[in-house]
Design a protein that fits this description.
With 329 residues, the chain is of the alpha/beta class. The chain has 15 helices and five strands. It has three domains: 3-162, P-loop containing nucleotide triphosphate hydrolases (Rossmann fold), CATH 3.40.50; 166-205; 207-323, Zinc Finger, Delta Prime, domain 3 (Up-down Bundle), CATH 1.20.272. It has helices at residues 10-21, 39-51, 64-70, 89-100, 121-132, 152-155, 168-175, 184-193, 197-205, 207-221, 226-236, 241-262, 275-284, 287-305, 310-324; strands at 28-32, 77-80, 109-113, 138-144, 159-162.
Length: 329
């Protein structure tokens, strides 16, 4: 894949290409934007361009360097991500140690750090030291959804490249090669993807994601009894962390839709295929009850990030959501 094939991020890519053309590459970049808009692909492609034997502003995709990066087996391409908790100091120590080695075969050693908003304090401080004196011929690309959780001192040492959600027409352009644009499925995916190409493609290709949404919405549409709440929390214990996060995002989108409808913003509703049910429920809730429900779900997402007991956290969430309802059974 070349820069040219990354959809909807022309501005970000132009900045990177201009720097390559001017040979003024920064030691550290921060790619910021929602998940699924092309940050990871752009980072990999930037690594390819920096090491491509053709030396152009886009990857040739034919040379041995481009092909090794495509297969993720180039010795000068390294990555770090949060696994089982935040990024730890040992991972940054490895970066420091290996950055001091000479290059194996490329022109730049590229470190891609995903989940850059998830550092331990120690790891963040250690990375800061690296960024203060970036090793020569090393390029560090930090990837994050938001800036808010990064240390200001780290932010100030990186060149920030913004990745935006795609417009509806850009998403429709991608969808039309897979489904008829006037089909309910295309409309639903366009809304659910919210400008994220990766999400649109996942929704097209992985039926399980839409099935999980259906099941979650079915729980929200009814009034759960206490027994059902306890059962549901048990059942959800078996979900992977990605599935659980998606499930909570569906719940979040439901309450946001209810609040949006209360404020008369019908066109912004995400779950538009459930409009009748949403309108019915939105009349029953107060705006403050809905704001509270949104806070409850957001807090639950944070708590699960701390690896608290999944079952207890989910039970607590459902019980609190019941309290937000106008009438509790
Ligand atoms: Zn190449």
């Amino acid at each position: 894949m070349s820069f040219e094939e990354i959809k909807g991020q022309e501005r970000a890519i132009r900045i990177l290409q201009n720097e390559v053309a001017a040979e003024s590459i920064s030691g550290a970049y921060l790619f910021i934007g929602p998940d699924g808009v092309g940050k990871n692909l752009a980072a990999l492609n930037f690594a390819k361009v920096l090491n491509c034997k053709e030396g152009m502003i886009d990857s040739c995709d034919r040379c041995s360097s481009c092909q090794k990066i495509d297969r993720l087996c180039h010795p000068d391409l390294r990555s770090i991500e949060a696994k089982e908790g935040p990024i730890k100091i040992e991972q940054i120590r490895t970066l420091k140690r290996e950055s001091a080695y000479s290059l194996y075969e490329g022109k730049k050693k590229v470190w891609i750090i995903r989940d850059a908003d998830k550092f331990t304090q120690e790891a963040a401080n250690s990375l800061l030291k690296v960024l203060e004196e970036p090793p020569p011929r090393v390029v560090i690309i930090l990837i994050s959804q938001t800036k808010e959780k990064l240390l200001p001192t780290i932010l100030s040492r990186c060149e920030t490249i913004l990745f935006s959600p795609l417009s509806s027409s850009q998403i429709r352009e991608i969808l039309k090669t897979h489904v008829p644009l006037d089909s309910p499925k295309a409309r639903l995916i366009e809304k659910l993807a919210r400008g994220r190409v990766g999400e649109a493609i996942l929704l097209l290709e992985n039926k399980e994601v839409l099935n999980l949404r259906e099941k979650t919405l079915a729980n929200l549409e009814g009034n759960l009894s206490l027994e059902q709440i306890f059962q549901l929390a048990q059942n959800w214990k078996g979900l992977s962390s990605d599935q659980l996060e998606r499930t909570l995002d569906v719940i979040l989108s439901w309450f946001r839709d209810l609040l949006i409808l209360k404020q008369g913003g019908d066109e912004w509703v995400i779950n538009h295929d459930r409009m009748d049910r949403l309108k019915e429920q939105s009349e029953k809730y107060s705006s403050s009850g809905l704001s509270k429900a949104i806070e409850v779900v957001e807090a639950t997402k944070r708590y699960l990030g701390y690896r608290l007991s999944t079952v207890l956290t989910l039970e607590d969430m459902w019980l609190r959501l019941r309290e937000c309802q106008p009438t509790t059974i």
